[in-house]
Amino acid sequence: MVSMKDIAVACGVSVATVSKALNDQNDIGRKTKERVRRMAEEMGYFSNSAAKMLKTNRSYNIGVLFAHEDYSGLTHDYYAAVLDSLKRTVEQQGYDITFINSYQHFAGTASYLGHCRSRGFDGIAIVCTDFYSPEIIELVRSDIPTVTLDHLFNDVCAVMSNNVQGMQDLLTYVWEKGHRRVAYIHGADSSVTQSRLASFYRTAVQLGLTIPDEYIRMSPYRDTKGAYRETMYLLGLSEPPTCILYPDDFSAFGGYNAIRESGLKVAEDVSVAGYDGIRIARHIEPTLTTLRQDTEELGHQVGEKLISLIEHPKTTLVETIVVEGHVFSGNSVKDIRGKKK
Amino acid sequence: MVSMKDIAVACGVSVATVSKALNDQNDIGRKTKERVRRMAEEMGYFSNSAAKMLKTNRSYNIGVLFAHEDYSGLTHDYYAAVLDSLKRTVEQQGYDITFINSYQHFAGTASYLGHCRSRGFDGIAIVCTDFYSPEIIELVRSDIPTVTLDHLFNDVCAVMSNNVQGMQDLLTYVWEKGHRRVAYIHGADSSVTQSRLASFYRTAVQLGLTIPDEYIRMSPYRDTKGAYRETMYLLGLSEPPTCILYPDDFSAFGGYNAIRESGLKVAEDVSVAGYDGIRIARHIEPTLTTLRQDTEELGHQVGEKLISLIEHPKTTLVETIVVEGHVFSGNSVKDIRGKKK
DNA sequence: TAAAGATACGAAAACGATTAAGACACAAAA
DNA sequence: TTTTGTGTCTTAATCGTTTTCGTATCTTTA
User: Fold this and answer.
1) Of A139, A181, A238, A341, whose CB is crowded by the most CB atoms within 10 A?
2) Helical H runs in chain A?
3) A163: pLDDT confidence band, cut at 50, 70 and 90?
């Protein structure tokens, strides 16, 4: 590997001069700078990030926590899309992305924080994990700039998809289509679930909807079988709903199956709405009406905020950035106005 | 940050002793080792990977190229699943994963190779990219241990999903179900496409199937609209196929749409088979018959091979590891034996 | 013309680890 | 007793940068 020393020798200058020339410091002459740079190019020089990091305490590397097994990691459409956007955002500004884990064999103790300290991440993004584990708490309480996605900690920057507004928009949407008997299969308990559920109830009240208790069901996120079962339950009620909301798009397809198996037709007989707006949802008939979360913007905001936190720690305020989603109007919710019984 | 020096002072020994104690070298006394370790733990010491890397020329970091925009990066089910498996595999052995890009602002020239040199990756995995770009060629021609997925370079280790066997199994499967008029919508040109197409033809010959030219169509991967169009074309033929194979599961759903829109029923009237075995395919009715690629094994093999290449460069042979997939038998291919005209 | 200010470059000390080689004490063997 | 060996620890060089401070040369200005 060719180092600055080699370039220095080749150019007949000192290492200091090479360093300054390559970093475009202004106490180096124009001609010298050019000479050094040309030589560096010619000799195939690449800066040694480890050495640079050792000296400057800056790694230009961002740790991403993306780990919880239940969430099936990278294969989760929503999180993967956010990560993809985050990746593009930070890379364009010269940062790399490294996954955080706690296997690290050369950290003293194996822990997320240990891993981060060891690698010297400039900042960390907590995208998908169990936010209640002690390891995570330890991590966010550290002095490393941190941004979380869809979860709120005190004094930690967060980017949140607006679940309150989202659920309100979605419920209002189906209400406007004439639906008055709306069921909601919500996901397993989490802050996201809480927000949506609370918003569902509040919006229902505002719209003058009465929601029987048996219309509120639970099924884990992305569990088509569970959603299938709950849908069957709902369809078996003496007064079944005309529209069912699901925790996510995956689950909504479980609903499709249950409805069809009951000899009914999606939309025609029972309307369905999902949540997330994953790609496939737009490509399956009937196309799914769903609240599409803006993964592009979410990832971008996480990246921007994090870099701002890293580069301007004093002037960047600790805040929660809320990103709006919007209803994607598919064919799975039937307009039943006028046909009301 | 507490360093070895701090521990050395606190323990009244030299830095060298601390280093050796923590690295479990055998020229340090048992008692000293314990004392040093306890102190390290107590003081919250974490090794500085940059310093270690500078000295040892080992980063315990693996670069992953996962970049091509057309392939939509991380949101591609197949590649994301492979990456997830790769990630778990290498992390358990103490390696980290960092994405390779070419934005790097502190490399001399911005290039993939420059980025890798700069970061000092111990090895690189090329998972998803345009294998024909000069930048990639430059990368695989370097001396950095490399493993590619689903693409073959000379003298470079590769892990390949067995597309030849896969297509053979799939075609044989539908043949055994009685299908004799089988169309194949293949993906855009690539080595993977080539393999499958060649295998399709060869298998057809072996089975004594005659495939009319108009049964072979092209539609880009993961393009439901394109698949929809080609399906419409096929259904409009004077003698339409009884079964259609698609480039991937996503496309297959485009086929579902076309079939239904033509007033026909999937499976009942026209059989459909996908390729990949993405999660959602098992959860939509009729469940998709598809060649399920073993993403878990693929990622695992990439990781194992890469680490072997890194840790035993002499004894690891340059080879191509082939991973088998298997037909997932869904409900989208109807058994029409006996009903043959 | 001499003092003061710019400009361009270099010397050397860090950053935090690893590691070869040496030193010292003590036990075992000659 | 001397030699050899063994176990434990230290010294010091080194990895490739950055950065502070110093110095030499050249311009300006009074």
Assistant:
1) A139
2) 4-11, 15-22, 30-43, 49-56, 77-91, 112-119, 134-140, 163-176, 191-207, 224-235, 249-261, 295-311
3) very high
Nucleotides of D under 7 A from a protein CB: 7-12, 14-20, 22
Supply the pTM of this predicted model.
0.94
Proximity of residue B43 CB to strand D below 7 A: no
Question: In whole angstroms, what is the distance from residue A159 CA to residue A89 CA?
Answer: 15
The rounded radius of gyration (Å) of the Cα atoms in chain B is 26
What's the token pair of residue A76?
Answer: 């989760």
Considering only CB atoms, A108 lies closest to which of B41, B60, B250, namely B41
- pLDDT score of A107: 45
Residue type at B232?
A: M
Q: How many CB atoms lie within 10 A of CB B318?
A: 11
- CA–CA separation, A192 and A163 (whole Å): 7
For the segment B187-209, the average pLDDT, to the nearest whole number, is 95
Q: Write the CB contacts of B316 (distance below 8 Å, at least 6 apart in sequence).
A: B305, B308, B309
Percent of chain B with pLDDT over 90: 89
Task: Name the one residue in this structure whose structure tokens are 């190779």.
Answer: B113
Q: How confident is the model at residue B130 (pLDDT cuts 50, 70, 90)?
A: confident
Domains A61-161+296-324 and A163-293 share a fold: yes
Mutate to test the interface with B, among A66, A119, A288 (most CBs of B within 10 A): A119
> From the Cβ of A16, is strand C under 7 Å away?
yes
* Residue-wise pLDDT tens digits, B243-255: 999 999 999 999 9
Domain limits of chain A? 4-47, 61-161+296-324, 163-293
CATH 3.40.50.2300 fits B163-293, yes or no: yes
Chains A–B, number of C-beta pairs less than 8 Å apart: 163
Give the DSSP H/E element, type plus range, for residue B271.
strand B271-276
Q: What pLDDT does A109 receive?
A: 57
Exposed / middle / buried, residue B12 (Cβ in 10 Å: 0-12, 13-18, 19+): exposed
Contact A204, A183 (CB under 8 A): no
